[in-house]
Amino acid sequence: MNLKLPDKLLVLMKISGKTTVYGVIGDPIEHTLSPLMHASAIEKMGIDAVYVPFHVRPDELEHAIKGIKALGVGGLNVTVPHKTRVMDYLDNLTDEAKAVGAVNTVINHDGVLTGDNTDVYGFTRCLFVDGGLERFPKRVYVIGAGGAARGVVYACAKSDEVSEVVVINRTLSKAEKLAEELSAVTGSHISAMPAIEETFSGMLSDAELLINTTSVGMYPQVEHSPVPYPEVFHEGQVVCDIIYNPSETRLLRDAASHGAKVVGGLAMLAYQGARSLSLWTGMEAPAEVMLDVLKQEFGQ
Ligand SMILES: NC(=O)c1ccc[n+]([C@@H]2O[C@H](COP(=O)([O-])OP(=O)(O)OC[C@H]3O[C@@H](n4cnc5c(N)ncnc54)[C@H](OP(=O)(O)O)[C@@H]3O)[C@@H](O)[C@H]2O)c1
Q1: Could you tell me which residue, 204 or 41, shows the higher pLDDT?
Q2: pLDDT tier at 206, thresholds 50, 70, 90
Q3: Which of 8, 21, 65, 176 could hold 89 in an S-S bridge, CB 3.0 to 4.6 Å?
Q4: Enclosing H/E stretch for 37
Q5: Which of 124, 166, 170, when mutated, tests ligand 1's pocket best, judged by the most ligand atoms within 8 Å of its CB?
Q6: Does the domain made of 121-264 have the CATH classification 3.40.50.1110?
């Protein structure tokens, strides 16, 4: 958290026996931006709560989850590498979390723990609000088949407007597995393609919507792009990169310079966080405040 010392003291002085604790678990956790955006939202909402990062190693995950019941932690965000395994230790899962196969939000309601996935909501809102998308096109292209791709592919595939999602990945077998699993869950047509030049030059020039979910281009490899053929981009396309560090990736710069509309991952991060806070508190969380503070952090 980039709070100055007096601000930190102010936060600590407000903590009392009635303060609700929320937090995020992950391994590693020291670079998380969640405390920054949640602290801003909590302040704006005027609620008696704090949000703290917890470093939880994989072999301590079960104890950590039992611990939040015992300690009365009101809710948790869950990040890498716990999003799938955490499901084993929860009492309930929402349909969305089951379908995606990952949990990024745990709600503690009177000692009953429910796992949800707010990445699906965060991603969709980011496309329609920040990406200016008015409707999904018939065919959507998603690059990557890792953890984050699951929520993105699910969000696209479950839309009635989409008739095919094409998953493009370096390791074709992983794209095929994801396509098979999410086709079964959504009943939608999901296909898999290798991330090679023929795929990009043959298919992407017709793409209306392309989403990068790989880590290619993420800090510190900021000069890399998952689509090293910028000529496939053109006007009329929306290109989304869910990477948020840097907030503008090489992929987005290439796409924008060829006339495509681009949207980065900071908005998705803010919106998934806002949704979690709303689920925990039953109040509408100020998503724009959360996004603004993230943008400030990245000098935007
Ligand atoms: N904005 C948000 O709110 C948000 C939320 C979640 C995640 N993210 C971001 O999404 C990104 C991916 O996260 P994740 O959890 O899905 O990671 P992950 O599970 O490790 O998946 C990584 C993906 O990137 C591909 N990849 C990695 N290195 C590559 C390379 N050198 N060349 C080609 N492909 C490569 C992998 O392909 P293979 O299958 O071939 O290995 C895989 O598809 C991260 O940057 C993360 O910060 C953003």
Answers
A1: 41
A2: confident
A3: 65
A4: helix 34-45
A5: 170
A6: no
Ligand 1 atom nearest the C-alpha of 244 is 1
Name every residue whose Cβ is closer than 8 Å to that of residue 96 and which is 6 or more positions away in sequence.
Answer: 116, 117, 120, 154
State residue 5's pLDDT score.
54
CATH topology (fold) of 5-117+271-297: Rossmann fold (3.40.50)
Ligand 1: centre distance to CA 159 (Å)? 23
CA angle 295, 49, 47 (to 5 degrees): 85
What are the tens digits of pLDDT across the range 179-195? Answer: 999 999 999 999 999 99
Whether this prediction's pTM lies above 0.85 is answered by yes
Q: Which residues line ligand 1 (CB under 6 A)?
A: 80, 119, 122, 144-149, 169-171, 174, 213-216, 218, 242-244, 265, 268-269, 272
Axis crossing angle, helix 266-281 with helix 34-45, rounded to the nearest 10: 50
Residues designated catalytic? 83
Atom of ligand 1 nearest to the CA of 265: 1
* Gap between the Cα atoms of 249 and 119, Å rounded: 20
Ligand 1 centre to CA of 43 (Å) is 32
Please state, in angstroms and as integers, the Cα–Cα distance from residue 38 to each residue in 32, 190, 285, following that order. 11, 35, 9
Residue owning the nearest CA to atom 3 of ligand 1: 269
- 138 alpha carbon – ligand 1 mean position (Å): 25
Domain boundaries, given as residue ranges, for the chain: 5-117+271-297, 121-264
Nearest to 54 by CA among 43, 65, 39: 65
The token pair at 165 is: 């999602």
Decide if pLDDT at 212 tops 60.
yes
Fold: same for 5-117+271-297 and 121-264 = yes
